Amino acid sequence: MKHCALITGASGGIGLELARVFAKNGHHLVLVDIREPELEAAKRELQAMVPDCLVSCVVEDLAQAGAAARVATHPEVQKQPIDVLVNNAGFGMFGFFAETDWARESSMIHLHVLTLTHLTKLFLPGMISRGYGKILNIASMAGFQPSPLMSIYYATKAYVLSFTQSIANEVKGTGVSATVLCPGMVPTGFQQSVGAAKPKFSAKSSWMVTTVEYVAQFGFQATMKGKVVAIPGALNVLMATLVRLVPRNMVTAFLRRAQEKNRKG
After folding, report:
1. What is the CA radius of gyration of the chain?
2. Which one, of 180, 154, 182, lies nearest residue 251 by Cα?
3. pTM surpassing 0.85?
4. How far from the centroid of its chain's Cα atoms is residue 210's Cα?
5. 230/49 Cα distance (integer angstroms)
6. What is the pLDDT of residues 215-251, one digit of tens each?
7. Distance of alpha carbon 183 from the chain centroid
8. d(CA 251, CA 245)
9. Which of 36, 89, 100, 249 has its CA 20 to 30 A from that of 12?
């Protein structure tokens, strides 16, 4: 019997690429996203690519209160046990905290923290009772340090990193594992969506960039192996280590300068 993976934010970017990888590796899929046309297009693509893959779609705004419960009780989700939960949905916001829009920031906190945590809470007990399950939470290199001009985004990703590491320890010996994927720069359109200038992945900076295909494959393999913290790219691994050795105020000042280079206007 095939396992079933539920993937949030599955209509594009890393989420869609993870869906492709899970489908190719014998999983049925439940795709969750707010963008219905893109979600249906993803379903058609995946079914054409892997004809015996059963793909269901759940249209839901995961940044809203009660979203996790609505997903868990959706008829398409109730059809089969969820063996793999991929909490990928997310977005960013750029600017000084005193000037940014609270409604959008509140939605970000709800999506990255409350919905992710609640979905994990809802599906984890069933995984433990069946003696098998995989949780993959998508964080970021942002989770290892603070950053001015993206304060909320970095803080929520730090939560995802810490939360996943904690539950990974709690589920040891149950047949369930928890993995947190921490990619660095990935050209998915994320930078434009947060209100930063369009990034230029030049030859000079290309050594810092990982592709969405590489990140998804890396995340899948880490999840299947039960690895707790998965950092794609040797440079990113090095940076995650070095940031712990450098004084926090120096890291914050450096990131302030880096963020300002991308600020519009």
Report:
1. 18
2. 154
3. yes
4. 15
5. 27
6. 999 999 999 999 999 999 999 999 999 988 899 899 8
7. 9
8. 10
9. 100
Edge-to-edge order in the sheet of strand 55-59: 55-59, 28-33, 4-8, 84-87, 133-138, 176-181, 229-230
Alpha carbon distance, N-terminus to C-terminus of the chain: 55
What is the set of active-site residues?
A: 153
Count of CB atoms within 10 A of residue 201's CB?
12
Could you tell me the domains of the chain?
Answer: 4-261 (3.40.50.720)
Q: What does the alpha-carbon distance between residue 177 and residue 112 come to, in Å, rounded to a whole number?
A: 20
- The dihedral sign for the CA sequence 162, 181, 203, 16: negative
Name the strand (E) or helix (H) holding 123: helix 116-130
DSSP reduced 3-state for 162: helix
Burial class (CB in 10 A: 0-12, 13-18, 19+), 177: buried
Q: 107 and 158 in contact (C-beta within 8 Å)?
A: no
Residues 6+ apart with CB under 8 A from 22: 5, 7, 29, 84, 86, 220
